Known about the structure:
Elements lengths: L1 H15 L15 E7 L6 H4 L9 H7 L1 E2 L12 H10 L3 H4 L5 E4 L4 E4 L2 E8 L6 E3 L9 H8 L6 E5 L2 H8 L5 E5 L6 E4 L8 H8 L10 E3 L5 E4 L10 H5 L3 H17 L9 E7 L1 H9 L4 H24 L5 E7 L7 H6 L6 E2 L1 H16 L8 E4 L3 E4 L1 H6 L4 H14 L4 E4 H5 L7 H9 L6 E6 L18 H4 L4 E3 L6 E2 L8 H10 L55 E2 L4
Parallel strand pairs: 1-12, 1-13, 2-20, 7-8, 7-12
Antiparallel strand pairs: 2-19, 3-4, 5-6, 5-9, 8-9, 10-11, 13-19, 14-21, 15-16, 16-18, 17-18
Amino acid sequence: MRLLRALAAFLIATLSLPPLAAASAYNARPNLIVIIVIDQFRGDYLERYRDQWGDGGFRLLIEHGAYFPDCFFNYANTTTAPGHATLLTGAYSNDHGILGNEWWDALKKKRVTSVEDDATKLVGVPGEGAGASPHNLQSDTLGDELKLATGGKSRVFAISLKDRSAVLSGGFAADGAYWIEPKTGAWVTSTYYRPELPKWAADFNASKRADKYLNRDWKDDKGNVLRSTAPEPGKPADFAHLVGSTPFANDYELEFARELIAYEKLGSDPATDLLVIGLSANDILGHEVGPDSPAMQAMALSMDRELADFFGYLGHEIGLANIWIALSADHGIAPTFPVASHLHIPAPIVSSSKVKAELNRALTERFSPGRSAELVVDFGPAVAWLNEVAFSALHVKEEDAERAAGEALLQLGMRGYFTRAQLARGDVPNTETGLRFLHSYAPLPGWYVLGVLPPFAEGGETGADHGSPYAYDRHVPLALYGIPFQPGAYHTHSEPTDLVVTLASVLGINPPDKAVGRVLAEALTAARRAEGSERDTRTAPLKPSGMVQPAEPNSEPLAASAVHGDSR
């Protein structure tokens, strides 16, 4: 009945609205845009479980919205931080600057996260912990353009369990980005956004809302207990560890989203507001069990019901006719080693620590025989970070050092490599692989090499991982729901970069400054639909290169201490 009421309200509101061309961010049409980004949600999940979806959740988007089943990231660094940055800037890493979740900082001589900022402090928990900000982002976002277009009248918020997901989605001008403190589950932000939590958020934390998700059993539809959120005897509760990999984490996050919408009065302003929600639980569970586990299926079905309830809340409070909803994901996931090997699919295991050790051994033998030297300071995922100071002391130039490291990676089973110096020049082969790695480049200080992982590579015999240039990591859902979008399944090729470009076009505002996506004109209602729906050329043709080409699978035996696999 709730869904029927919402659809009736949608039809009534549609008939009473002025012509579509009059709708724009400047006159608060729509009142609110909600972008749902699911962490680690492969594009094929929507079809895999299609006959099991209920009403009002995913079906609202894929059957009553514009649904693009053929949506793929066109880069290789398929991880959380680049994914969220790409979705909200409409650009890839070579333009938005976010190479990964973390990287080696050559000046600090340690690994740093994509959003940590020593110039800020955490807000919402005791102590002087470093905060987070979008200071590493080199492009503005959809939220920033909304702010610019409306003179700051639009309200922009982003939330997630993870700081990188919230911060990079919100952009520079966001009114707030919120994430959780992992141990307690308390919602926090950074002094970049405000000196203290708003009263409603402080009250939310003070009421111990996180505690009600502890000491509970997560059961599937048949009543089987999949896992418990009860702390181990004698150990303090750890919210992220206990709750993060269950649907209760999504419930908790959407509960906070409802509170934010109510107290910040989203959707009631004289300009269009934006809320980005990054649902993280899928990723936490997926790394443990992989994409083919019954637990992952149960998580997806629970998420469907949770989204149906949340969309019902939006319909009741604001009206679905006044809201646009978008759905996507930051990356996919590879099958686990047991699943792949059971199907006789080669699934090599890549140990970052062993690859680093083997690289150091090979490079030391070549450039500093008989002496101990750490020429590779960090490795992973599929990125070798070189010791610039050590190589310089040996009078080895950057390009020579990176090429030598790349050749050593080939001997360890990588399918190819791309050096930082090579990518900085745009000097890559004119191939799909070359373009994906060019899009993965970020102009960070320091020397590094990007390795081309073998297909289905994993970090161990248990769990699952992502971060490759292959379809299972690049394929994500894309769906748009709202008055401007013609319902249907569109099998024209799309990329996540198209999302904000399309929204900006229909809103009548500028796209983010580095955006490279196209307007998904084929999915717009007749008043806005452009002639034809062919895929646009997104970049100028790449010049042929005499530089390193991606290698064919190595016919030599792989170094067992670094990369090993079993077709069984």
